[in-house]
Amino acid sequence: MSRARVLRVAVNVPLARLFDYLPPDGAGTLVPGMRLRVPFGRRRQVAMLMDVAEGSELPAERLRRAGAPIDEDAVLGPDDLWLIRFASDYYHHPIGEVVAAALPAALRQGGPVAARVTALALTAAGRDADAARLARRAPRQAELLDALRAHSPLTEHALDGAVPGWRRSRKGLADKGFIETLEVADTPPPLAAAHAVPGPPPNAEQRQALEDLRAHSGFGVSLLDGVTGSGKTEVYLHRVADALADGRQVLMLVPEIGLTPQLVRRVRERIGIEPLLLHSSLPDNARLHAWRRARDGSAPLLLGTRSAVFTPLSRPGLIVVDEEHDASYKQQEGLRYSARDLAIARAKQLDIPVILGSATPSLETVLRCRQGAYRRHVLAARAGNALPPLLRLVDLNRHPAADGLSAPLLAAIDRTLKAQGQALIFLNRRGFAPTLICPGCGKIAECSRCDARMTVHAAGKQLRCHHCGASRPLERVCPDCGSACRPLGQGTERIEETLAAHYPSQTVTRIDSDSTRLKGTMDRALALATSGESQILVGTQMLSKGHHFPNLTLVGVVNADQGLFSTDFRGGERLAQSLVQVAGRAGRERRQGEVIIQTAFAAHPFWQRLMSGGYADVAEFALAEREAAAWPPYTRLALIRASAAERTAAHRFLDDARRKALQLDAAGVRLLGPVSAPMERRAGRYRAQLLIQSGGRQALHALLRPLRMQLEASHGARQVRWSIDVDPIELF
Ligand SMILES: [Zn+2]
Ligand SMILES: [Zn+2]
């Protein structure tokens, strides 16, 4: 035990605790939120000061002294540190790694917060110099001196504008001792405000929702439960404008920015402000720049994906989570957080409202509304005069599909094209075919590193594994029996090929993660789709997210059956969400949309519920099922995953975890497993999992906290990769 004043810091290492250091010699005031360099093992690390404490558990002789602080002031404010602590506690994840996730890469590595740029400044000698004499002998130098006498210092950027050619005069003036070079803070000009274009007047439902939203101030969660095309965005935008008018900042989260250029454009036009974008494909310096502007308050409106939830805000006023049901809000590796859930926690801490929006709200959110914890605003009608699309099932047993497309679906495409409409053919499988089979011996091409089949990709004539990324050339003949191999089943490439052969005069546009990998290809494909120049679109769920295609009147779902028999308890919810979302692309303007779903299981009760009662009925039924089976959202789950090159190592680690859990206070929790993961081998590693289920959050966390510490310290932890996933959304 030491009584000395210590700094408690977070270091980016996979250990859950904070580390104690003695304050550096001669340091001024140290406050939480500042970064310091600390000796760690044999290296020096960037650390975040979380707390200044009186006394340490460690004896004085074991305390090391921290190095000098990197920052003059706190980089993160108390609310930002609160969010980091909350995420670390809730997800049982090492706090240093949470800090790292919350900071742009440059800051994580110890770079300066303020952007510095080079500037020239006048010296005392320069101020007193005889300018007239200089002007006779060196007129260019005199010009630069004059500019600096009018304003000093001037940044390089400012000099480029004021004295073109100043670089040539710089040395002469510096040699005379008239000027010096400085580093100054770069203060960016305010974001240009464009002219805001007013939207359509809100309809009765939108007005009602807005009135309700405006009637409440401070923290509160509101769900905008609006059918696709009902104008949820219009409602957000009014509230965004309200907050901006109050001088507050707005953080708007979207599932994927690359997929929502239309939303970005709409925000820009309607609000008249260039939203600052924050997403993972920004280069490091752009990300730092955006982060800085959010933090200093010079950017009023931030539009970002998952990780933007950590961005510091100087005067937060509103958080919006668009498409709150979307699985991409949950990070599936490292810090496995839900950006939606953290957004709600953060809004509560900041005492500001949060608006969730979806046409297919998650069952978690539906239940919270029912319990009265969230307010629900229903937008049941489509904006304008658009009608909801008509849903129709095609029984594949009565109308067999040739190359994936049944006669009724082809007839509907014909009709659509004749009426100058647009058809979207939806299939959640990219590639040419999901399977390569040998008709001679029945051999199926499998990945050598995963328990999974290889997908046939026509482009590049390859077999690719969608789980580990492995690829090999397409096998034309079976290595076992020499018969010619055949692709089996449908992927987007194959459907595209079939449609192109069927409709040779049409432009068929495919949109999936393969076709849009190259920069600019997504924008081009979307432009073809939005203008209606391409009348036939083929795509995966990428196409179902948020797009507005004015001419689209027909949606064809090639095969939805894989979702009907999912082993995951969320299977039904997911299937209904993706179908309703893609169906919602149809008939958003004048003409009514039509949705044709091909299925080999037309009698499955799921279809009756979806056809008669829509998503609300599916959700209702799924909630009753979850309650009966004690699954979330009625219970809480955490999944401990382990993987290793050997099967036994992964299981041994989880057996040990189970034993440790039972020795701890495991009252109120159920331990299920360990079992092998449904896909046991992935990228050459064997995977297993232990599921922890609890009726309440407290019991679950009371167990996980000490369990995490014990596992971290255990011998087995060094032989496996392991993680804790709180509120997992996938159980494999
Ligand atoms: Zn064979
Ligand atoms: Zn693989």
What order do the helices and strands come in, and which of them pair?
Layout: E1 2-11, E2 19-22, E3 35-40, E4 43-56, E5 64-65, H1 78-90, H2 95-102, H3 105-108, E6 116-122, H4 124-128, H5 131-137, H6 139-150, E7 154-155, H7 156-162, H8 166-175, E8 179-185, H9 204-215, E9 220-226, H10 232-245, E10 249-253, H11 261-271, E11 276-278, H12 284-296, E12 301-304, E13 316-322, H13 339-350, E14 353-358, H14 363-370, E15 375-379, E16 390-395, H15 407-418, E17 422-426, E18 435-437, E19 455-457, E20 462-464, E21 471-473, E22 486-488, H16 492-502, E23 508-511, H17 521-531, E24 536-539, E25 552-557, H18 561-564, H19 571-583, E26 594-599, H20 605-629, E27 636-644, H21 647-663, E28 669-682, E29 685-694, H22 697-713, E30 721-726
Parallel strand pairs: 2-5, 9-14, 9-15, 10-12, 10-13, 11-12, 13-14, 16-26, 17-24, 17-25, 23-24, 25-26
Antiparallel strand pairs: 1-2, 1-4, 3-4, 6-7, 6-8, 18-22, 19-20, 20-21, 27-29, 27-30, 28-29
Helix pairs in contact: 1-2, 1-13, 5-6, 6-8, 9-10, 10-11, 19-20
One zinc ion binds next to loops.
